[in-house]
Amino acid sequence: MDIVWEDTVQGIYRSLYINLVGLWVILVCAVLSGLALYSRYHDCDPWTANKVSAPDQLLPYLVLDILQDYPGVPGLFVACAYSGTLSTVSSSINALAAVTVEDLVKPYFKSLSERSLSWTSQGLSVLFGVLCIGMAALASLMGGLLQAALSIFGMVGGPLLGLFSLGILVPFANSTGALSGLLAGFAISFWVGIGAQLYPPLPERSMPLSLETYGCNGTHNETYWTSTTEMPFSTSPFQVHSAERTPLMDNWYSISYLYFSTIGTLVTVFVGMLISLPTGGRKQNLDRRFLLTKEDILSSFDFFKKKKHGLSYKSHPIEDGGTDNPAFNHIELNFADQSGKINGTRF
């Protein structure tokens, strides 16, 4: 049993590392796509020239531009992008419905039949789908969708990452310090996140690249300059237009949204350590198996090392008159002889 559990854990570790490599590949491809976009349209920005209505349309515009001489290829790209997005959303909705039925509906409504649970799962799928559509409509009002999503995920995921990091890396962390650090991380993350939403940074703080249109046909005498990184988020309807900006707005609220997760993680770990020390963190009994060690990291990279597991045979008591097979009961057939004694027929 221990061998099977060890192999399962190693498989989980390897799958996470492989997923990490895939995420790195996606990130590199996204960076290269952005560099290719700016390299091709540095003198004729489609967004500034009103050739596209949103920055999210720049990449499809690039594909249509460079692949216009190859019939069917731009449509294949768009079809792949939409199919990948829809498949991800549909699987997430079905997973949410299944988890809700298993964890929330079944334990409290044990009298429901399988047919009722099936209808409940389908109804939850419709409900979650409507909520996703509503969230998408709300996100469209926030400007840049990617920036808004990363901001929200950073504000929520940063403190959660700090909580797990505190429990794994800090031996003296306790529940009081963990809860205090989590609350402090959420408070700081939402403070800077909501503040950046209400008071977006000025262009001179975000230092966006200049977008020009002098290379476009018919616009040689016009030059426009705007922001591609911070401006979509600044078009939020929640923005507060203030004539006078304070140092808090120009410094703390001008932090890039990519640092929201880092701030939440660091605050959670730091506050959790400070609270755990005076609240008895060093006096608690510690099980070293729940801490991250060097062996846990190095053992996950032994991809080509084949482990030879030997099966240990535990001997069983052998009755008089035969040999014992541990796969069966040592007495398969019992019958009484004339003397009233019990004999066993063994295999």
TrEMBL record:
Key words, A-Z: Cell membrane, Ion transport, Membrane, Sodium, Sodium transport, Transmembrane, Transmembrane helix, Transport
Main location: membrane
Localization annotation: Cell membrane
Topology in the lipid bilayer: Multi-pass membrane protein
Membrane-spanning intervals of the chain: 16-38, 124-146, 152-172, 179-199, 257-279
GO BP term, example: propanoate transmembrane transport
Superkingdom to which the source organism belongs: Eukaryota
Annotated protein name in UniProt: Sodium-coupled monocarboxylate transporter 1-like
Species assigned in the record: Hipposideros armiger (Great Himalayan leaf-nosed bat)
Lineage of the species this protein comes from: Eukaryota, Metazoa, Chordata, Craniata, Vertebrata
